[in-house]
Amino acid sequence: MLRKVMLAIALSAASATGMATNNERQVLPEHPTADQKADIEQRLNDWPLLARFAKDNATYPPLKPGEKRVVFMGDSITDGWGRPIGEFFPGKGYINRGISGQTTPQMLVRFRADVIALKPSVVVILAGTNDIAGNTGPSSLQMIEDNLMSMTELARAHGIHVVIATLLPISNYHDATSSTRRPPADINTLNAWIHDYTTREHLGYIDYFDAMLDKSGQLRADLSDDGLHPNAAGYKVMAPLAQKAIDAALADTKS
Fold first, then answer.
1. Which of 132-141, 146-155, 164-173, 246-255 has the least mean pLDDT?
2. CA angle 104, 108, 111 (to 5 degrees)
3. What is the model's pLDDT at position 255?
4. What phi and psi values does residue 23 have, to the nearest 5 degrees?
5. Which of 19, 120, 219, 226 has a Cα-to-Cα distance from 1 of 20 to 30 A?
6. The pLDDT of residue 170
7. How far apart are CA 15 and CA 136, in angstroms?
8. Chain Cα centroid distance, residue 58
9. pLDDT tens digits for 87-130?
10. Are 225 and 96 a contacting pair, CB within 8 Å?
11. Residue that terminates a domain, selected from 28, 45, 62
């Protein structure tokens, strides 16, 4: 009985198979597919996916004298950056710790292992779109904000400068359900809070949203092949914005 309950809980949070929808509970199907079963097992055994980078983190070279590391924490938009789409800051040595499908509570759980343990000078956080989509169950904007604040406070407690990016816009050009799973009003509200929070707390800030918006208020069609994730052209727009914020944060580490 307990295992059946746990399976139901795990499946209700399923994201990899695309079953979860915004603020909608899911139930265990009578005959789960192979993909659903695999997702359930993964969530039962390692919900935040701590195993994804465990070996890399454990064997990562120690800091060199004067080295200023930068870690990117995020979901699939970060995960796909340079692996395999576009280029991820060639020659910079930045560390990518994005995991596809993740929400802010999952990132918060792995923040110590995937960010703090690497001893970076700067962390760049892009998170929240999957919370809005309900990837790990219903999530309010306040819950997302709380998790972003908790990651910020953890980073600051360890002398890490924080940069938070706005969520990207979405579009219905490729998938008519995009705005249903990720209502633009929720994205706008969270982005407004990110702007206010980073200003109030003197954090680094990246505005991807406005830079990638078209005249109709959607993600530019030339910057994405699915209306959610950047393509190579999209990452080319994002890279200099991120670099500018990183440079500013690194300059603060010298003062």
1. 246-255
2. 130
3. 58
4. 55, 35
5. 19
6. 97
7. 7
8. 22
9. 999 999 999 999 999 999 999 999 999 999 999 999 999 999 99
10. no
11. 45
109 in the same domain as 206: yes
Query: Within a 10 A sphere around the Cβ of 72, how many other Cβ atoms?
Result: 27
Length of the chain equals: 255
Which tokens in the block code for residue 142? 């306040």
103/144 Cα distance (integer angstroms): 9
Contact assessment for residue 3 and residue 116, using Cβ atoms and an 8 Å cutoff: no
CA dist 132 → 24, 34, 201 (Å): 11, 26, 24
- As for how many domains the chain has, the answer is 2
Place of tokens 């809005």: 132
**Cα–Cα distance measured from residue 97 to residue 100, given in angstroms and rounded to the nearest whole number:** 10
Q: Are residues 191 and 212 in the same domain?
A: yes
Which CATH number fits the domain that encloses residue 246? Answer: 3.40.50.1110
Quick count: other Cβ atoms within 10 Å of Cβ 174?
Answer: 14
Q: Assess whether 37 and 63 both reside in one domain.
A: no
| CA gap 28, 71 in Å, rounded | 37
pLDDT at 4 over 80: no
Q: Is the pLDDT of residue 225 over 90?
A: yes
For every residue of 106-130, DSSP letters joined together read HHHHTHHHHTGGG--SEEEEE--HH
Give the end-to-end CA distance of the chain in Å, rounded to a whole number.
58
Q: What is the pTM of this model?
A: 0.88
Cα distance between residue 161 and residue 122, in whole Å: 5
At 197, list the tokens: 């929070």
| 20 pLDDT higher than 70 | no
Same structural domain for residues 27 and 60?
A: no
Residue, of 64 and 44, whose pLDDT is higher: 64
